[in-house]
TrEMBL record:
Note: Reaction proceeds via a syn dehydration.
Entry function: Catalyzes the dehydration of L-rhamnonate to 2-keto-3-deoxy-L-rhamnonate (KDR).
Source species of the chain: Desertihabitans brevis
Binding of substrate, residues: H22, R48, E337
Entry binding sites for Mg(2+): D214, E240, E268
Residues at the site labelled Increases basicity of active site His: D290
Cofactor(s) demanded: Mg(2+)
Domain of life: Bacteria
Enzyme class: lyase
Gene3D superfamilies reported in the protein's UniProt record: Enolase-like C-terminal domain, Enolase-like, N-terminal domain
Catalytic residues in the record: H317
Similarity field: Belongs to the mandelate racemase/muconate lactonizing enzyme family. GalD subfamily. Belongs to the mandelate racemase/muconate lactonizing enzyme family. RhamD subfamily.
Name of protein: L-rhamnonate dehydratase
Keywords, ordered alphabetically: Lyase, Magnesium, Metal-binding
Length: 391
């Protein structure tokens, strides 16, 4: 490949299912009375959409090289993200070499510090970074995992997240992670219901199947400590995202107080090497960066190395092909998450469906990452998209 430069960056928005996987219509397990930090307000307990979890929508970033080759990526950021790409970040890409990944990332991060650091700005930086990786892979005719040093194993093994770990077991997954339904505000009765749900599922899946619970930032240290001890009796493998992401001190306390044998995991709402440094210093066992949100592949490489030196596993949150190409290249990411986006979590459907074409899914809980150049997916031309801003 001769030295290619970036001709144009474009940002589009998509509504409905896609990279913003909470942007669902109708009944769906992912929005059925799941415990959240907003559950302190009873009126927001039944639905996460009721407090706006689906407000952002999907952002599509396209990066075009001077020979007309286009790389793209999708993330959660919608119209606000499109504005940031077009009005602010495009200047750091256009005219630069496609291989300038580090410099472009650094300029995007430093220039947005006054309003960024994490959250939607890091989602957007992730989207741009992933689009650049996709472009580089297409130009070199190589899958992204080859750009990252190559695979350390032949195929990925998955656990499934959804309402039906018993079904996940039938489908060949390693384990199943369920949402916790009741937050501390639902009192002793909620605590009992949470434990009963775990005990009931343990009865359905038998002793050896991994069972995990995702608390989606809803607990406090006292509740989480009492719960993790009670859940250990039912063979809980890990307790996920028990506390709000800013409570690093709470995570340290929870890790100290948790029973040996139950892992403490978190990090899907954390970003950058500095955020994860703080998290790793709490002693948590597994970090779960979302490559669509934590800063993209350029940042995940650093986060992962830091985790390895701390003896923590990196099991990225969701993010489909964007995490598969990374996980397959790292020994400290021994398995991957598959987020079941089927309405009742009974069938395997592509996570970002219908937005991407060629999005691979696990079969019998396993997947050989395709060798197709870039991330190996295309945008579905039948999904309507808009370009709300230009520059
Ligand atoms: C299941 C959780 O509530 C969430 O929406 C997805 C998630 O946190 C995960 O896959 O992990
Ligand atoms: Mg989670």
């Amino acid at each position: 490949m001769s030295q290619r430069t970036i001709r144009e960056v474009r940002a589009y928005t998509v509504r409905g299912k896609g990279a913003d996987y909470h942007d669902q219509e109708g009944a769906h397990w992912i929005d059925d009375h799941i415990a959240t930090p907003m559950a302190v307000y009873p009126e927001y307990r039944q639905s996460r959409r009721s407090f706006g979890l689906d407000v952002l929508g999907t952002l599509v970033v396209e990066v075009e090289a001077d020979d007309g080759t286009v790389g793209f990526a999708v993330t959660t950021a919608g119209e606000i993200g499109a504005w940031i790409v077009e009005k602010h970040l495009a200047r750091f890409l256009e005219g630069r070499a496609v291989t300038d990944l580090e410099r472009i990332w650094d300029q995007m991060y430093r220039s947005t510090l006054f309003y960024g650091r994490r959250g939607v700005v890091l989602n957007v930086i992730s989207g741009v970074d992933l689009a650049l990786y996709d472009l580089l892979g297409r130009l070199r005719q190589e899958p992204v995992y080859a750009l990252l040093g190559g695979p350390v194993r032949d195929e990925l093994q998955f656990y499934a997240t959804g309402a039906r770990p018993d079904r996940a077991k039938e489908l060949g997954f390693l384990g199943g992670k369920m949402p916790l339904h009741h937050a501390p505000g639902e009192g002793v009765e909620g605590f009992r219901k949470n434990l009963d749900a775990l005990a009931d599922m343990r009865g359905r899946v038998g002793e050896d199947f991994w069972l995990m619970l995702d608390c989606w930032m809803s607990l406090d240290v006292d509740y989480a400590t009492r719960f993790v001890h009670a859940a250990a009796e039912h063979g809980l493998k890990w307790l996920e995202e028990a506390l709000i992401p800013d409570d690093y001190w709470g995570y340290a306390q929870l890790k100290r107080q948790a029973p040996p044998g139950v892992l403490i995991s978190t990090g899907e709402h954390e970003a950058t090497r500095w955020g994860f440094r703080q998290l790793l210093e709490t002693g948590v066992d597994i970090i779960q960066p979302d490559v669509n949100w934590c800063g993209g592949i350029t940042e995940l490489i650093k986060i992962s190395a830091l985790a390895d030196a701390h003896g923590a596993l990196v099991v990225p949150h969701g993010s489909s092909v964007y995490s598969y190409h990374f996980v397959v290249t790292r020994t400290n990411s021994p398995f991957a998450e598959f987020l079941m986006m089927h309405e009742t979590a009974e069938e395997v459907v592509p996570m970002f469906s219908p937005l991407l074409l060629g999005e691979p899914v696990p079969v019998d809980g396993r997947l050989r990452v395709p060798e197709t150049p870039g991330f190996g997916v295309e945008l579905n031309p039948e999904v309507p998209r808009e370009r709300p801003y230009t520059h």
